[in-house]
Design brief:
Length: about 325
Amino acid sequence: MSSETTTASVLNTTFVRPDGFYIRGFYALQHSNYYFIFLGVLYVVTLIGNFLIMSIIWFAQSLHTPKYFGVFSLALVDVSYSTTLIPKSLDVFLFGNRIVEYNSCIAQIFFVDYFSAMESYTLLVLAYDRLIAICFPLRCKTINSNTKMILVIIISWTIPFTVVFTMAYYITRLSYCKSTIVNSYFCDHGPVFKITCSDYSVNWFLASFCVVALYFVPLALIMLSYLCILVALLKIANTDGRIKAFKTCTSHLILVAIFYVPFLVTNLIAWINVNVDTDTRSLNTSLSATIPPLLNPIIYTLKTDEIMQQIKKYIRNRKIAFSA
């Protein structure tokens, strides 16, 4: 038996679980530390904005409606998504802790992918709310009550959990007998399974299934819901009423575009196996993961009259309290 055959046999029969993975990050970007400081600032602003939105909805009884339950869920997902990604990246690149322990890496793969998928499904939930409100205005309170909306939100959290948990579990079945250098700025699912010496065809299939089930399907349903909304709007004879109804959708449409466009571009490139250098991919994925959670509360604050009214009401009450 030749030495090459012997080596191949050993690789196929020996399961190697590494102590950890080395996160390569940016290898050509100059002054990358400043970039991660920038991400840290974005993270702080993201937390402030989303906690503000959640506080307003929590304390304002008038906002305890299906629509704002969905907005609250989105803000919670935004905080969770950013927290699973940015603080660990700051630890890795600003403090030099580039070796990530094996179990911590698997955990980050799960939570980053889970909350990213949750972002997608929460946008679908908000599209469902707009569909019911505009297409069935007289029956919307019975079709989509607070209790039913909470059930819809729970289902939207459960489906991604099942899919992503399965995807992360199959990473633990891979052997790493060669490289443990991850060509990304975090424990990224694709770059982690691609450095294994095992057959990763199952992982590739699960990654593709995840993109379809957790992103393309929700996006298709969102587009279908807006097609139904468009038909309903065209049936409204009053132009002012038509515009008023459409304005309730603008915030959601902006959020859909901000989230899906960069995400789908990044994943389509990876899906068709186009080689993109690590720095470009890391810049793209980091910005597409941090910008939407930052902008979501800003857009909902500026574009939603009910939330602006609650903020103005709070400011007026504070002024009265100080003047008393």
